Each structure stands twice: as C-alpha cells, then as structure tokens.
Amino acid sequence: MLQVALIYDFDGTLSPKNMQEFGFIQAIGKDIDEFWTASNRLSQDNDASSVLCYMYQMIKTAQANDISLRRESFNRFGSMVELFPGVREWFQLINDYGRSIGLELHHYINSSGLKEMIEGTAIAKEFEAIYACSFLYNVDGVAFWPAVAVDYTTKTQFIFKINKGIREVSDNHRVNQFVQEDQRPVPFSRMIYFGDGETDIPCMKLVKLSGGHSIAVYRDEENRPKAEKLIAENRVNFACLADYSEGSAIHQKVVKILNKIKADHEVVEE
User: Fold this and answer.
1) Count of CB atoms situated within 10 Å of the CB of 235
2) Does pTM surpass 0.85?
3) Rounded distance between C-alpha atoms, residue 189 and residue 106, angstroms
C-alpha cells in the first residue's frame, strides 16, 4: 500500500496548552506564568535557546523542590495531558479511511515538547516515531542533562528523516546521503503537516513548497486570524479549528488531501 505520513506538532496542535502545565508545574509548587517568565528571562538574559532554558528550568526547579525527575515521573505527568476534541478517536478514524482507498497512514510527532511526557499520553501508541526534546539520565535514573533539544530549525531535519525512512535521532549520516526521490519511502508530496505556532512555520512551509500539504491549527476564534495569515503568506494550505472529530473541518480537509494523493499516484502510474 502507498505510504502517507501525517506529522504533528503537539502543544497547541493536539493539546490546548504546553504539556508542562499539566501536572509538572503544579508538582513543583509554581504558578504557570511564574515558571515561563523565569524560563524566558533566562533565555533573554543569556541570549540562549528558549528550549534548552525551559529544560534547564525544569531540572533546576525539580531539584529545588526535592522532586526526582525520572522517566516514570515524566510519563505520569504525560498521562495528565489534555487533548483537543476528537484526538483520541482521530487515528482510527483517519486510518480506516486511508485503508479504504488503498493508503497506509503513518503518524509522527515533531515537537519542541518532551518525548518522555508524550510517551505517557493516551495516544503515544499511535505514533510511528516521536521526535521531541528528551533528557539524559544518570545511574540512578534521574534526568540531569538535555539529550535532544528541538527548536524551529531542528524540526526540519525530522521531515527529511521521515522522507528517507530514518527513525534514529542520532543518525546524522544516512539523513545526508543522496537518495533518489523515487526511492524514498515517503515523498514530500505524501506528507501532511499539522502545526500551530512559530516553531512549526519552517516545517509547514517546507512540506507545502515540496508538494505536500500543511494545516495551521487554531484553538479558538480569537486565534483564527493568526492561522489564516499563514495562508496569505503562502506558508500553509489550510487553517482549521482544533477539532479532530468526524465531520470536522480538519477531518474533511484531510480526507480530500488523501483522495488527491491517491488520484495523483494513479495518474503518475498510468
């Protein structure tokens, strides 16, 4: 069957808030605004990566509050993460449709959030791979240093890894090897990218300009103009409310995109 990749950001795309705001910040006794203000100030004062600074802030505040940040702890916080309407049912819904027209759908996460937390969510099993930030752990199993930090430019490398069928984050060799377009497992034209924020713009534009489709997701009417602006700027194909239920705008758009992918392939074959 023809392979199609559906690639999702997480915070703001599948979930309404930053994942740290579901359990972790409450566990360290901090106010949500207080945590992010401190993290952003650390980034600005040191002209440092905002992603690395939030990861540092998590370790620092956990240590200050005698909280042991083990992988199991992140997984537990991940289990508290809320999802947008229809997300839990989305994967079977769209997989079934894809299969009905001869397409094999694979789902991926491409996020600046935490892999360990995403692995604790109810939908973790749906993903072929989760490309996201993660930590290194000491001999006692406690997080002590970033292993992977994913920002808006880093995200683009994972699009090429998916394109070439590479799962490992650490593989910097095969991702840069030349591979004929027709020999790549998932051409850009068979990718659909879902994102909501600035960290997604390079990936959304890359996929769109390479023949695939990008969807800007917005959480409510207040954020709709920001998403629709990305259409005017030629960065995405569509802007949709973050509702993945059957019959929703996202569902209808993705069904049409899948039909187009199938039809385009049949035209080429003939």
Assistant:
1) 20
2) yes
3) 14
